[in-house]
Amino acid sequence: MVKTTDEFATQGQEGFSWMQKNNTNRSVIQIENLSKSYPPDFKALNKINLEIRHGEIFALLGPNGAGKTTLISIICGISNPTSGRVLVNGKNIISDFRATRAIIGLVPQELTTDAFETVWDTVSFTRGLFGKHRKPAHIEKILKQLTLWDKKDDKIMTLSGGMKRRVLIAKALSHEPDILFLDEPTAGVDVELRKDMWEIVRGLQKTGVTIILTTHYIDEAEEMADRIGIINKGELILVEEKTTLMKKLGKKQLTLELQKTLKKVPKGLKQYELELVSDGNCLIYTYDTKAKHTGITALLSKLSEADIKFKDLNTSKSSLEDIFVNLVKETT
To answer: pLDDT by residue (tens digit) across 50-82?
Structure first.
């Protein structure tokens, strides 16, 4: 387990409070009309416009092949755009490559590590690649926080998949970046490591680090993110504050388990737009919780008049996963 997030959080906590007041809406990344094409005519990204705010956790969701990794690769300088531009802290990622890359940390999706190097050596070497002076105390702190300290002299090839994932995070944090990209960081790892990693992410955010993550675990985005972007077929179809998104698109459903199977919904109930499911054994009524009247009382009265009896009922609220699936379906 992670030892503590306090070591991340206490460092510069006062400074973070100041930053919160003064950088609430400051953009640390600006993406303007960004496109990426591959011959002969495949568009991986199509005119992406997006701003990432200082100190936020931004979750980018999308199905496989939607363009998430391509977008991250361009921002991190691994791939070049076909058109458009990206600014990091006001600097162009192409003309000011060294300056922008120096403040970015990337945890890639693939487990690419130096198999024959020790944990200590590979993390220290990565720091040096960014022109940073040796700082053993910082490397030690990272390894301890990632519970890698007792593995510091082990070769990467001897580590488990979960430990290798921790090493990738250590490498990404070795040069003390202001922006951290996490590309499917918990794919294929155990529940314990997932929890550990999100503890670390929360601690980093408290020090003012901006975090952009892609994930297939939508529950993680729902729990962790401040804002959510949804991308599909290379196009950004939605960017919204998580709380606003849930209020705007999240609806409640009333599920009625019927005493007798119903072949079809009576015409007199058409206005309620009921959905008949479970081979006619359940009715689902979707309603807006913010509306002045939910219509539930009137519905139950109409059901009674139609001699439709139910033996149980329950309510449920749309999750982010429901919202995500519906939005992707609309653009497919």
So the answer is: 999 999 999 998 888 889 999 999 999 999 999
d(CA 279, CA 283): 10
Coil vs helix vs strand at 154? coil
pLDDT tens, 115-138? 889 999 999 999 999 989 999 999
Instruction: Please state whether 190 falls in left (phi above 0), alpha (psi between -120 and 50) or beta.
Output: beta
Q: How far apart are CA 72 and CA 176, in angstroms?
A: 19
Q: What is the mean pLDDT of residues 209-236?
A: 87
pTM of the model: 0.72
Alpha carbon distance, N-terminus to C-terminus of the chain: 41
For residue 57, give Cα distances in angstroms to 202, 224, 228, 229, 281. Answer: 9, 7, 9, 11, 43
Residue 124 sits at the vertex; the CA angle it makes with 118 and 128, to the nearest 5 degrees, is: 140
DSSP state of 58: E
Domains of the chain: 6-103+178-247 (3.40.50.300), 251-330 (3.30.70)
Strands 83-88 and 91-92: antiparallel
Whether the CB-CB separation of 97 and 86 falls below 8 Å is answered with: no
Cβ-contact 258, 281 below 8 angstroms: yes
